[in-house]
Amino acid sequence: MDTAIQTAPRKKRALSCIQPTGIPTLGNYLGAMRNWVNMQDDFECAFAVADLHAITVRQDAAQFRRQIYEMFSLLLAIGLDPEKSLLFVQSQVPAHSEMAWLLACHTQFGELSRMTQFKDKSANHADNINLGLFAYPSLMASDILLYQPDYVPVGADQKQHVELTRDIAERFNNIHGKVFTVPEPYIMKSGARVRSLQDPTKKMSKSDENQNAYISLKDDPDAIRRKFKRAVTDSEARVYYGEGKDGVNNLMEIYSSVTGKTMEEIESEFEGRGYGDFKAAVAEAVIDVLRPIQQRFDQLMKDKGYLERMMKQGAERASAVSRRTLDKALKKMGFVLV
Ligand code: TRP
Question: Counting Cβ atoms within 10 Å, is residue 323 exposed (0-12), middle (13-18) or buried (19+)?
């Protein structure tokens, strides 16, 4: 009998990681993390908490440990599904550190010196310009290349590191034979570009010294209302998207991103109404989107046992995948595997 084997075309693979260096902002969520959730159906996804990257700057041990649990909880709370996607903590998968050394030996001093993030971070931490900070992109390349992804969804600030990863992969493949898929950066099309609420010419950032400039994913409803109330707008008191209205544009961008409404719909909704009404509506819409995430996050943080089981399961799965790539690379280079 003729059995037609239904082979669906293999889903493309995507991988991204996030450092556990504090609670992300609404900008991180709407601009990147929420898209990861949507990507889970169309791609075979892997997401990791990049804790090894975080120690390129000094971390307090107790706070660092808490932030690792928090970031892992948050990934689950926003809707990343461990049954659909590979979810793990980088340091729990030893192949990352091992591969980083192999790739460090295929990364040039000159290439690393040109990385803008290295230049910025060494200016900001002039007392601790360590080798890890410099070699950071080799570790990031190993995070990526171990899983053979086709795409790496990242924000624009990480594009340079993904380009370097491509160069490292191509170089390695040319010297030793094909081991790595050469991945492409995947700059999200649908991600909102959320700006600071206090200076809308700047990106919303959790490291802003003015807490009113950003919404943290952990902010409670009162804090969210207060921050939107204080958000910078203009003196025209008319809600429309236009030149010279950076503050209002940003609020419309956020409102559109959380409600799905178009700019035209928002303009007509607030026709003849002032900024007070508009800001209150934006705040309530944001509160509604964050509420279920915050509830799940709080529950997860109370159950370390569950989190650790999920971490362990992820680490085991990730180790199986990454070990295969690492062994292949070692073998091609001439190492003796026993
Ligand atoms: N460097 C990334 C950042 O700071 C985090 C990261 C580490 C990452 N490894 C990665 C992102 C691999 C994408 C793929 O945002």
Answer: middle
